[in-house]
Amino acid sequence: MFKNYLIVAVRNILRHKFYAIINIAGLSVGMACTILIFVWVQYQFSFDRFHENKDRICRLEMKWEWDAGKNRVRFPFAQHAAGPALVREYPEAVQSVRFRHSWQRPLVQYKDKQFHETNLIFADNSVFDIFTFPMIKGDPNSALTRPFSIVITKNMAIKYFGDEDPLGKVFTITFQRMTDVFEKFKNELSGNLGCVITTDDLIRAGDLYNRLRSDMKRIFNLRRKNPSLISSNDLQAIVKASMIMDREIFLDKLSAVASDLKATKPQPSPPLKRLVLSGGMCNIPSVHSLIEDCGAAIIWDDSCSGARYFEGAIDPESDITESIAKRHIEKIECPAKHAALSRRGESLVSIAKTYQAEGVIFLLLKFCDPHAFDYPYIKELLDKEGIASMLLEIEAPLPSEAQLKTRCQAFLEML
Predict the structure, then answer these.
(1) 166 and which of 136, 157, 195, 318 could share a cystine (Cβ 3.0–4.6 Å)?
(2) Of the candidates 149, 155, 153, which has an alpha carbon nearest to the alpha carbon of residue 171?
(3) CA–CA separation, 117 vs 107, rounded Å?
(4) Does domain 178-414 have CATH number 3.40.50.11900?
């Protein structure tokens, strides 16, 4: 019977060749597409299935909407403080880990071998608590617990070390992004201004700014020891002048002010609550006077328009472009430019302790998301050290002065 069916099928194919070709081709294409789709789906579902906690691992994403939700876009990333905040606020979230791609090709060197690597990723040390990546050598529980530690792939170990044991070896990783950015900016600025910015010009400018920052820090330290020397409003006026005045004229006047303040004898004043001000850019000087009118002394201004503006010096002895880049990398910046996840909070705690501050007031400019995300973990660090803090949300123009004054007075009474 099967033989008869086969003979009939062959005869039909030979008799209706065109029709048979269409049917066979359609069937072949359909089967091929089905197999390809099955293989693709299987491949997609095979990602990261080896992790023990695969069914409990979620990725946090960011969604932006505008025009009343008519337009929307999703990004596979979120603010750096979101993970720890979820763990802290929601018991369902047990652990979090943050990844950050280097977005550049750093130079990685071991002895005489050096390569520009493209897949360097920074991560929290909790990465191996969540993901169970198999390790050929080393202990996942202690792999990333120490600063400047690194985990590498088998291929990378062979590329750099050959048959040597890679454990305990030291890489030199050089990030040149900031240096390259400044070099590019210098060249573009030279072209737009129609002049040549030489290395000597940068060295002279670096020396000038070093002296400016030194005098600014001197004035801040003098006021920290004796707040009655100069008001916060006047200090803010000096900071603003440093941003807009001719630098050489300003330096002459600044040095004179610093010398005068140093020679001024401290005036007796009633005991005041010692506060540290922290936050973003504050161009509303009345905030400072409002706080001090309540019976406080702002002994240090850690805002972006305060001490952080003049922190750090440029080394005139080294390559000037690298020195400028190094200053920007090492100084405590705003939370949008973190060098380390908890560095700014630890710095603020250190300032409050060193300067014997009784409390910290955060000036949070509305809609400044990086500072808003930073505030919870910084407050937690301060609470652990027993340092009182208060969040003061501001905008331009300021809300009711009476409302702000009432909050400040209540905070000072708590100290």
Answers:
(1) 157
(2) 149
(3) 7
(4) yes
Q: What is the DSSP string of 340-371?
A: STTHHHHHHHHHHHHTT-SEEEEEEETT-HHH
- Give, for all 415 residues of the chain, the pLDDT tens digit: 677 777 777 777 778 888 888 888 888 999 999 999 999 998 888 777 888 888 889 888 888 887 777 788 888 888 777 888 888 889 899 999 988 887 677 778 888 888 888 888 888 888 999 998 888 888 888 888 887 788 988 998 899 888 888 888 888 877 666 777 788 888 888 888 888 888 888 899 999 999 999 999 999 999 888 888 888 888 888 988 888 899 899 999 999 999 999 888 877 777 889 999 888 766 666 788 888 888 888 889 888 888 888 888 888 788 888 888 888 777 776 776 666 667 788 889 999 999 999 999 988 877 777 777 788 888 989 999 999 999 888 776 666 677 888 888 899 988 8
Return the closest-CA partner of residue 282 out of 393, 166, 144: 393
What distances in angstroms separate CA 260 from CA 127, 160, 208, 271, 307, one per listed residue?
55, 60, 21, 24, 20
Instruction: Go through 141-156 and write b for each residue having 16 or more CB atoms within 10 A of its CB, e for each that does not.
Output: eebbeeeeeeebeeeb
Token pair for 406: 């009432």
Alpha carbon distance 348, 277 (integer Å): 10
CB 240 within 8 A of CB 201: no
Distance (Å, whole) CA 379 – CA 358: 14
User: In the numeric block, which tokens belong to residue 125?
Assistant: 């040390």
Other beta carbons less than 10 A from residue 12's beta carbon: 12
- How many whole angstroms from its chain centre is CA 41? 37
Contact 376, 85 (CB under 8 A): yes
Distance CA 262, CA 217 (A): 13
pTM of the shown model: 0.65
Amino acid at 390: M
Distance between CA atoms of 202 and 319, rounded to whole angstroms?
A: 10
d(CA 313, CA 211): 9
CA gap 183, 186 in Å, rounded: 5
N- to C-terminal Cα separation, the chain: 101
Residue 288's φ and ψ, nearest 5 degrees, are -65, -45
Domain segments of the chain: what residues? Answer: 2-45, 51-93, 97-175, 178-414
